[in-house]
Design goal:
- The chain is built from 15 helices and 14 strands.
- It is of the alpha/beta class and about 400 residues long.
- Bound molecules: pyridoxal-5'-phosphate.
- The site of pyridoxal-5'-phosphate (PLP) has 14 residues, from helix 5.
């Protein structure tokens, strides 16, 4: 971009209602429920976080982090392959492997970096990579980084994915999908995708950033709920900064896969290792999530309550049984107005606009967590129905 184009580019974003503004959000203020935040001086109920289990404010995680910081300090000091790999990382990886039922796991600093690393390690230049059209940006960027030829199949259309795999002139290297789609809350047709990938000998990568900890009878994610094994889905990506209330991410798979990533995933190799106190908090989150399984049930129960009440109030909803509940609004301008109206009513619900979602499919992304209570959910639905009445583009149905 040329230097003189900077201001016009920002003005153009502003004109099309696509300019982003960061707001300072004070989390977990004293004498408030854990679902409350203070946004620029105003106390609001937060329906926008990915803290599905309400673990981010859990005292056990904070204690694990503080205890580890007093023993190990705040920084890792180096990358994993130099001298930054500590006991907490090793233990976290073993526990993640056990939790996901895989031979090994590799801890990355973020989910974005995990996807960059795994995609670029498994897809070679010129090979074909197939992605769901609504895949997360990090899967797309990982595919681009690999130099592979990226193709996208229609959202959740496993038959189209199979057809595209069959039509590929060279055997495709990778088929990748989100488990739970981050902006839609729906779940990929994993059994069909696993069959298609196996038939065409492609790697299947499932990024379960929003499913792990929440979905499945034991919270082990979308693969558990679909009854799929490591054989069906050889590469599983999970995050630690969402349901697990801490930070970081992991790839879980066979011992050979992890060994390859240690050698080839540049976003693992060429970066400072995650601070050990963060790994200690993530370990505690894994234990707490399993011990306090009511958190998962609570988030799902409140999700069902939200859907039932919203349905009755005529608030339009997308098909989603997960705590991610998008309310379609239609345009960036209308979504921003709806966000503002909800803010005035006491709720922090962020408008999701292009390019995060396709143009014309702007929405409010409501997320339910174990930290909410029934009154907060009911009050949100009431406010949403008023907002929808006021918006030409979001009429109650
Ligand atoms: C599907 C998906 N994958 C990966 C990521 C990236 O994870 P992280 O925030 O740990 O970088 C996100 C969200 O941020 C996501 O929604």
């Amino acid at each position: 971009m040329q230097r003189q184009s900077l201001e016009p580019a920002l003005e153009s974003l502003e004109r099309s209602n696509l300019r982003r503004h960061r707001h300072t959000v004070e989390r977990f203020p004293e004498q408030a429920s854990h679902a409350e935040v203070i946004v620029e001086g105003r106390r609001l109920v937060d329906f926008s976080s990915n803290d599905y289990l309400g673990l981010a404010a859990h005292p056990a995680l904070a204690a694990a982090m503080a205890g580890c910081a007093s023993r190990c300090g705040s920084g890792s000091g180096a990358s994993h392959l130099i001298s930054g790999h500590g006991l907490e990382h090793a233990a976290l990886e073993e526990e993640l492997a056990a939790f996901t039922g895989r031979e090994r796991a590799l801890a990355f600093s973020t989910g974005y970096m995990a996807n960059l690393g795994v995609m670029s390690a498994l897809a070679d230049r010129g090979e074909a990579v197939l992605l769901d059209r609504l895949s997360h940006a990090s899967l797309i960027d990982g595919g681009l980084l690999s130099g592979a030829r990226l193709r996208r199949y229609p959202h959740c259309d496993a038959a189209a994915a199979r057809r595209m795999l069959a039509e590929s002139p060279r055997p495709p290297a990778v088929l990748a999908t989100d488990g739970v789609f981050s902006m839609d809350g729906d779940i990929a047709p994993l059994a069909e995708l696993a069959r298609a990938a196996r038939a065409h000998r492609a790697w299947l990568i499932v990024d379960d950033a929003h499913g792990i900890g929440v979905v499945g009878p034991n919270g082990r994610g979308v693969l558990e709920s679909a009854g799929l094994t490591a054989d069906d889905v050889p590469v599983l990506v999970g995050t630690l900064g969402k349901a697990f209330g801490s930070f970081g991410a992991f790839v879980a798979g066979s011992a050979a896969l992890i060994e390859l990533l240690v050698h080839k995933a540049r976003s693992y190799i060429y970066t400072t290792a995650l601070p050990q106190p963060v790994a200690a908090a993530a370990r505690e989150a894994l234990r707490t999530a399993q011990r306090e399984s009511w958190r998962r049930e609570r988030a799902l129960e409140l999700t069902r309550r939200f859907r039932a009440a919203a349905g009755q109030a005529g608030v339009p909803l997308a098909e989603s049984a997960t705590p991610i509940q998008p309310v379609p609004i239609g345009s960036a301008g209308a979504a921003l107005l709806a966000q503002q109206a909800l803010r005035e009513a006491g709720f922090w619900v962020v408008a999701i606009r292009a390019p995060t979602v396709p143009v014309g499919r702007e929405r409010l992304r409501v997320t339910l967590t174990a930290a909410h209570n029934e009154d907060q959910v009911d009050a949100l639905v009431e406010a949403l129905s008023r907002v929808c009445l006021d918006s030409l583009e979001c009429r109650p149905q």
